Amino acid sequence: NGYNLNGTRIVVEEARPKDDAKLPISGTRLYIGKIPTMMKKHDLIQAFAPFGDVVELNMKDDFAFLEYSNVASAYKAYQEMNGAKLGGSRIVVQEAKPKAGERRGHGQGGELGIKIPRYRRSPRRSISRSRSRSR
Questions:
Q1: Cβ proximity of 44 and 59 under 8 Å
Q2: Which end of the chain has fewer CB atoms surrounding its CB within 10 Å, N or C?
Q3: CA–CA separation, 48 and 43 (whole Å)
Q4: For 73-90, what is each residue's pLDDT tens digit?
């Protein structure tokens, strides 16, 4: 990257489809909310599979996080499924916020970015405050 070849500087960057640059969402992970309690994982995958390759699905009680293999698929699902009726109720589809310790976008740590551990240790108390023990 940055080498000269016959007097021309060569720049190498990550390749992205042209469509990705124009999309209002920048990630491949979606938050799906207000899921009916009767819905199962396979029902969600079946509903969201037409928009692209589903890489991962983490489902809780009434919400889920779904990840696609590319941003264009996530955007299509967002456009079509946000406010759509699923199992008798309207669901909410939004771009998921990054997991704690992750950076948004494509980084050197993988497709979802670099994980940064965030923890703080509380200082240990070395002296007992109890007076009954010192007597």
A1: yes
A2: C
A3: 9
A4: 999 999 999 999 999 999
